[in-house]
Each structure stands twice: as C-alpha cells, then as structure tokens.
Amino acid sequence: MKGSSSLYSITMVNEQQIIVIGGGAGGMIAAWRAAALGAKVMLLEKNTHLGIKILISGGGKCNITNGADIQTMIRQFQMNESRFLKYAFHTFTNIALLDLLHAEGVETYVQENGKVFPKSHDAEDVLNALRRMMERVNVSVRLQSPVKEIFVDSDGLFSVKIGRDTITASTVIVATGGSSYQKTGTTGDGYRWMKKLGHTIVPLRPALTPIIVSPAPPSLWQGTPIRDCNLMAISDKKIVSEWRGDVLITHFGLSGPATLEVSRNAYLEFERGKMIDICVDFYPELTFEQLDEKLIAEIASAPARTVLTLTEQLVPQKLAEYILISAKIGFIKKLNQISKNERRALTTILKRFSLGTVKEIPLDRGEVTAGGIALNEVDPTTMESRIVKGLFLCGEILDIAGPVGGYNLQAAFSTGYVAGENAANSFNELNSHITAQ
Ligand SMILES: Cc1cc2nc3c(=O)[nH]c(=O)nc-3n(C[C@H](O)[C@H](O)[C@H](O)COP(=O)(O)OP(=O)(O)OC[C@H]3O[C@@H](n4cnc5c(N)ncnc54)[C@H](O)[C@@H]3O)c2cc1C
After folding, report:
1. Which of the four pLDDT bands, split at 50, 70 and 90, describes residue 9?
2. C-alpha 81 – ligand 1 centre gap (Å)
3. Extended beta strands in 181-258, E state
4. Spatial distance between the Cα atoms of 152 and 136, rounded to a whole number of angstroms
5. How far, in Å, is the centroid of ligand 1 from the Cα of 54?
6. Is residue 1 part of a domain?
7. Is the pLDDT assigned to residue 131 strictly greater than 50?
8. Does residue 266 share a domain with residue 186?
9. 327 vs 82, 225, 343, 349, 412, CA distance in Å?
C-alpha cells in the first residue's frame, strides 16, 4: 500500500513526485495543473524539445481549439468518445484554455469556421506560453529522457526506467500521444507499457490521414484543389464515409480536409479487404435534377460553345478533359449538338467522379491515431486508470480521435488538465496522510 506506515515506505513516498511522461499538449498542461496545486512534478520528454506536435499543428500556425460551444465541441467526437470527454471538456473548456493563453500574452482569433489560432500565426507562441506556465510553478522538465518501461511494485509504487536510471513515483501521468508521425517522438511506447499493466488497447488505426489511391492521379492534376465538394468513400455501392469540404490532389493521391475526415471510416472497410472507390460530388448543394437543370440553362445561354469550355467552368480546369472522357463526350462537340443522354451522363459524372480506389491509408501520416487505451478502463472524471491505482492517462494515447478544427488539441488539454488536477489531489492526500502520521 502506498503511504504504508513502515518507515521505509514513508521515506520512499516523501521523496516521491508526480512523474508526467510526454511533453506534448496533454502532458504539459497536466504537469502545470498538478504543480499549480502544490505537487512536486517532473516531466519526462524523449525529444530535445517540448511540444513538437504543437509546433507542426495547423501547418505551424496551431489551431489551438475551436470557438464552438462546449456541447457542440463534444458532439464532434464519436458517441463513446463524446460520453468520455464530457466531464473533461466541461471542466477545462475552450474558454478556460484561451483565458490562460491570453493571460500569457498569446492573442488569438476565431476563423469563420470556428478554428482558433494565435494572432501571430506562430505555434511557438503557444508552446512558449505553456513553458512559462510550467516554469512558474516549478515543474522540473527533463528533456532527452526516453522512458523505456514502467513497473509497479506490490506496494503500488511506480518505477520509471530511463536508460540506466530508475525514478520512483507514487503517481504517474502517461501522456505519450498516439502512434503517427513517429519521427516526432510518438512511437506508441505508452500503449506497450499500458498493455503490460493490464490495459486493453483498442486497435490503432489511421485517422485524419491522406489517402493513397490507385491509379495515382495523372501528373497534370497534382496540386489541384477541389473546393467545397462532397468526398465519398464507396464500397459495394454504398457510401461508407463522406465529408463536405476541400480536397487537394497530390502526387500520391488525396489530401485536404475532406480527405482527412473520410479516411478513418474508409479505413475500417479497407482493412476488411473491401475495394473502396473514392468519388467526388462537385455540386453537393444540388440534386441530380437541379444540376441537370443548371446544365440545360448553361447550354441554352451559349449553345455554340464547346462542351469542353463549359466543363472547364464547372470543375477545376485540369480535370475537365478526364471528366468528358468518363462521360464519353467528345471535347469539341458544340453544346447544341449534345444529346440528352450525353448531358445526363455529364451530370452523373459531376455528381460522382472517381478519383481512384484506395491503395493505402498510412497510420504514420495521420494527424491523429484512432484507437488506444480503452475508455471504459479510465475514469472520465479523474483520468485515473481503473486498473492501476495512481496511474493517470491523458491525450491521444486514449481511444479518442476528433475531426479537424482544434478538437484534438482541446481533447489533449482538457484530459491533461483533469489528469493533472486529480493526480495532484491523490498525491497531496497521500502526503498529508504521511505528514499526519
Ligand atoms: C501534422 C499534424 C497537424 C496537427 N494539427 C492539429 C491542429 O491544428 N489542431 C488540433 O487540434 N490538433 C492537431 N493535430 C493533432 C494534435 O497535435 C494531437 O492530437 C495532440 O498534439 C496530442 O497531444 P498529446 O499530448 O496527447 O500527444 P503529443 O503532442 O503527441 O505528445 C506526446 C509526447 O510524448 C513524448 N513521448 C512519447 N514516448 C515517450 C517516451 N517513451 N518517453 C518520453 N517521452 C515520450 C513524445 O515525444 C511527445 O512529445 C495535428 C497533428 C499532426 C501530426
């Protein structure tokens, strides 16, 4: 038992501190909150820098959070994730996060789509604010400290192994993140330790990931954006995933917000061995009949134009010829020469144009990792493991993956705050027992 009355145990616990493993968004806020509540905190980070993912987030501009109300934010996550996050999101809201950053001099603004960024457009400002907050409450940060293993002894004390050193602690917060962008340090170490300690790891899957398609897009298309379309992943003639937004055609396939959002559910079908066709609807706001009416009006307004000229106005120019090939209409045909069947074939293609079939959705290129520590094994009001007492978890290591829009950083911050607060409470309680003895 922690805090047992044997002289040896008391000495050990008195020397203890909270160890936070992982210096990302979740780990840093957890360390700050715990130390602000009076706990002695050491933060271990394997990299030479803290917060590398913060620095690359939002293309280096850091989409810190979203300006939506909390209920709306929570609803962005899958049902079981929303239920789990409810307490943390209400405890440490987007407003509370922004208040902290503003107090540190980081001015922010909200885009029309709700995304919140620092006014400076510099993620480093967010990271520096977190650094200063930790410094002020005396968090001891140890960089270049890759944790190899965590053990728990029969008294419930943790041994955290870093190279040849072993640090003991009564309380540990694991915030090692997901398993994508492994070059940034997130190599999934925490999952391995948690599995050994008895936790269930929900299988790791890519989310918010570019999609590699076959055949690779023609080189002419590369770099072409498709704005405000509906991107669909189709398997066995059914739409298994869709998202309205922008798509970017790249040399390997597809990227851009709509692609990232489609990737998670498309992968679920892909891993079942299904062939997934990735299609785009260029006019999601119009039904087939409305789009056909639009074409009729266009044809009537300038019947002597070629069908290619019209198609170049309807879709990104570089795609126009391919669309006409798919619709089996000659490029130079005059609009007043195309048959009703040809016009309707063009309408059909504009509503569902194939950009290729899924070849790969690589886990490592995901902005987040879906899967992770099973949520039913963590208390959502404290972030303490229900399996190992004194062990707290926060951030992307949990089975949580939100959409693009600042939701993932907010999830890391909110769960980190709750983990830090409750780790401090359990640490302080333990210390007060010892002092009282
Ligand atoms: C390219 C990209 C862009 C993104 N943009 C956004 C965005 O704009 N907005 C948004 O909300 N989300 C964004 N995300 C997602 C967001 O960055 C993450 O969900 C969030 O950073 C997760 O925070 P975390 O603290 O859980 O993990 P991380 O930030 O990944 O931190 C984990 C830390 O643990 C350390 N660590 C791992 N193993 C060990 C070990 N064995 N010993 C010691 N330390 C270890 C790692 O080095 C790392 O520093 C983006 C992600 C990527 C990859």
Report:
1. very low
2. 18
3. 201-207, 211-214, 225-235, 238-249, 253-255
4. 31
5. 7
6. no
7. yes
8. no
9. 43, 21, 9, 6, 47
CB of 126 sitting under 6 A from ligand 1: no
How confident is the model at residue 437, as a pLDDT? 58
Domain count along the chain = 2
Residue pLDDT, tens place only, 375-434: 999 999 999 999 999 999 999 999 999 999 999 999 999 999 999 999 999 888 877 766
In which residue are the tokens 């300690």 written?
197
Q: Are residues 315 and 419 in the same domain?
A: no
Tokens read off for 271: 């891993």
| Ligand 1 close to Cβ of residue 24 (< 6 A) | yes
| 27 and 44 both lie in a single domain | yes
Ligand 1 touching residue 160 (CB < 6 A): no
| DSSP three-state, residue 254 | strand
Is any atom of ligand 1 closer than 6 Å to the C-beta of 371? no
Q: Which of 311, 341, 361 is the last residue of a domain?
A: 361
Task: Tell me, yes or no, whether 2 lies in a domain.
Answer: no
Edge-first strand listing for the sheet containing 165-169:
147-152, 158-162, 165-169
pLDDT exceeds cutoff 50 at 45: yes
What pTM does this model have?
Answer: 0.93
Domain C-terminal end among 310, 341, 361: 361
Hey, what amino acid is at 29?
I
Contact 206 CB / ligand 1 (< 6 Å): no
Residue 47 CA to residue 51 CA, distance in Å, equals: 9
Question: How many Å is the Cα radius of gyration of the chain?
Answer: 26
